[in-house]
User: Fold this.
Amino acid sequence: MFDFNFYTPTRVVFGRGAERKTGKLLRQAGARKVLVCYGGGSVIRSGLMDWIRSALKGEDIDYVELSGIVPNPRLSKVYEGIALGEKEGIDFLLAVGGGSVIDTAKAIGYGLANEGDVWDFYERTRKPAACLPLGVVLTIAASGSEMSNSSVITKDEGMYKRSCNTDLARPVFAVMDPALTVTLPAYQTASGCVDILMHTMERYFTNGGNMEITDALAEGLMRTVMRNALILRDHPDSYEARAEVMWAGSLSHNGLTGCGSDGGDFACHGLEHELGGMFDVTHGAGLAAIWGSWARYVYRDCRPRFYRFARRVMDIVGEGSEDAICMEGIEAMEAFFRSIHMPTDLQELGIEPTDEQLCRMAHLAAEAAGGSKGSAKVLHECDMLQIYRLAAEG
Ligand code: NZQ
Ligand code: ZN
Assistant:
């Protein structure tokens, strides 16, 4: 068991109609001029933005809007938001959307609160000293950014993704109404469920410091997400299932399922971020496409955890060697991915990278990690390339 420092300052307002409390929450947080950030239009079509605007007006809070944030959000939009925020003198950010909108708002918050180029914080050549306060109205259960310390941005030039992780960017509040996620396309719902699973799996497959209480929380979370992902496949309108998945999404990435461990593995996330940067794929689907290849490549270096996962999460009950049980667990997870129409290799993901592109992604992933990444198995550039090649072969 490792010592840990668990910091989760976000006030969560959860349930039906929670978005109606946004105005009051902004008032309580002392917001005077707000930059409201949102994406490509789902929040307009659903009428949510009308609610938000009237909530702001109702509390007499001044605001400006920044729209058009795309999935795998771009640095150019961050710069646009920083320029707008400076011009308008904003003192608070409100993200209405999913991970891409929240991460953009976090980046704008860093840009407004610090001198110099915000990208330095993502390249990790400098550390931010502050971030403007941020609130969230969540519309998709997936990234966990509504409570996480992380912001992931893609640089337009070269199309590569980098993250900046500091407690400064943890949102002040997160408004979560599961009913808002009913309009999601099935692919986004399923991708979100994979991302939620993966945030806990990245923390679960480690070679250090696992705690019984953390394992119990993690295993319960994974089982709950899988069960409810299947319910949502067949009954996308189920409020109960939407709620289970939404709350799991926040708990999966606010640090709770990593307490006492060595910080987790996160190699799949590193590998996926390069896929997202280069091919603009949906993050959760990209994770599903890479996970099986990663797991086969690393499980012998992390047998006790893969064995436990097979028995306690995937319900593998038969006899067999330890390796055979580990493999059955991996195959069962891939079968689950397929059952919710998620890909298990790059072809199923819809991309066919050349070997040159695989080499470039491995190089970038290793570079972003500072040379190596992983706890289940420490991966270097050559290992990353092998995993990409396995995923490309299918
Ligand atoms: O742009 P709009 O029109 O809103 O459409 C979005 C977008 O196309 C749509 N959508 C969202 N809510 C909807 C909806 N459509 C209908 N009804 C709704 N209620 O869904 C699409 C995806 O949105 P996005 O925000 O990209 O999804 P997600 O929350 O999965 O975020 C993905 C991004 O988060 C990053 C990923 O790398 C990716 O860039 N991550 C951020 C993390 C963090 N900050 O902690 C951790 C994650 O591991 C992840 O890396
Ligand atoms: Zn993720």
Notes: The chain has a mean pLDDT of 97. The longest helix spans residues 212-234. The radius of gyration is 20 Å. The first strand starts at residue 11 and ends at 14.
